[in-house]
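Researcher: I'm preparing a figure for a lab meeting and need a structural model of a single chain. I don't have an experimental structure, so a prediction will have to do for now. The sequence is pasted below. Please return the structure as C-alpha cells so I can convert it later.
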Amino acid sequence: MRLARRLLLAALVGHAGAAAQTLGPPDPRSAPATEQATPRPPAVGPALYEAVQRATDSYPAVQSQRGSVRAADQEIRAAKQLALPRFGVQGVALGTGDGLGSQLVADQPVYTFGRIGAQVDRARAERMARAGQVDETVLRLALDVTDAYFTIARLARRASILEANLKNLDTLVGSIRNRVDAEVSPATDLALARSRASQTQQELALTRAQQQAAVARIRQFLGDASYDPGAVPTYDPAIHHPQIADAIEAARRCSPARGRLAAQAMVAQADARIARKSLLPQLSAQASYNDIVGARVGLAVTAQTQGGLSDLRRADAARERASAAGIDVQTAERETIEQVSADLVENAAARDRIDASKDAADTADQVTASFYRQFVAGRRTWLDVMNAVREAAQARLGESDAEITAMASSARLLLRTCTWQPQGRLLGEPAWPSD
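Model: Understood. Here is the structure written out cell by cell.
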C-alpha cells in the first residue's frame, strides 16, 4: 500500500513538472506578432509617410488596444496554468481532542476531456480578436490621416490657383478702370470686374479657413499642435496609378475587420466547446492530509452540472453567436470589396480627368489671352473676357482636384491591400476552428 502511494505521488509530481514545462516558451499562435512597418512605397510621399507613422505610434486608442493585447497574452498563460496542481487548506471542527483541525489537499488534473484545451483555445482566439481590433484601428487611423493630409493639399493648391486668379483679376480691374476713366468702356464693365474679383476673394477666404480646419484635424491625430504638413505633393502618373495584382482579393485578405470578426467567431465556438465539455467528468490525482485519517493518495472523478442542463443552453447560445459572427464576416468582406472597387474606379477616372483637365486649362489660358486682345480691338465684349478668365480658373481647379484625387486614392489602395503597412500586422489570416 505504501509503495502504491509513493508511485502515485511520483506520478503526481511528474505530471505537474510536465505541465510546468509547457509553460516555458509561449505558443507561437499566442505570442505577439513581430510588427514591422513596410518600406515607404514610391507613391507615398515622405511627409505623409511620417505623419501616418507618428499617428499610429502615439494615438491613445491604439495604445489602449495594444494594452488589451498584452492582457490577452497573460490570459493565455493563465489558461495554460489550469493544468498545474491545485492546493487547498481547510479548517475543520473535530469531535475529539481540542476540537480544531486542518486538512491539506493537492489536486492534479489528469484527464479533463479537453476542457483545459478549450480554455486555452478560447484565450488564443480572444487574443486574435483583440489583435484584429488593433489592426482595424491602425488602418482606420491611417486612412483618416491620409484623408486629412490630401484635404490640406487640395485646399493649398486651390488657394494658390485662386490667388493667381485674383491677381489676374486685379490687373484686369486696373486695365478696365483706365478705359472707363478715358470714357472708352462703360462703368458697368468696371463693376463686373470688381464683382468677379470680390467673388474670388470670398472663395479664397473660405478655402483658407477650410485649410486651417484640416490642419487642426491632422494635428489632433498626431497630438502635435505645431505640426506642419509641408509642401504640396507632386503628381506623377508613373507611380500614382498602382497596378496591384488582384487588388480586391488582396484587400479581402488584408481586411482587419474581417480578421477580427473571424476571431470573434472562433471565441464563440470555443465558448460552445467549453460549455459542452463542462458536462463531462474530470479525472484527478489527489493527495490529502488531515488530523483524523492522516495522509491519503488516490484518484478522484468529479462531475457536476450548473443549473440543471444550462450548460447545453450556453453552448447553443455560443453557437448562435459564432453563426452571427460568420455572417458579419461576409458583411465586412462586401464592405471591403465596395470600398476598394470605388478606389479603383476613382483612381482610373482621375487619370482620364487629369489629361482632359490639363488640355482644357491650357486651352482656356490661350482663349483668355485671345479674348482680351479681341476686346481691345473691339471684336469681343468685356463679359466675354470675364467669362474666359473664370473658365480658365475652373479648368486649373479641375486639373488640381483630379491630381489630388489620384494621389489620395492610390494611397488608400496601398493601405487597404497591405502594400503599405504603417505598423505591421498583429493578426494574420485567422484559421477557422474545426468544430
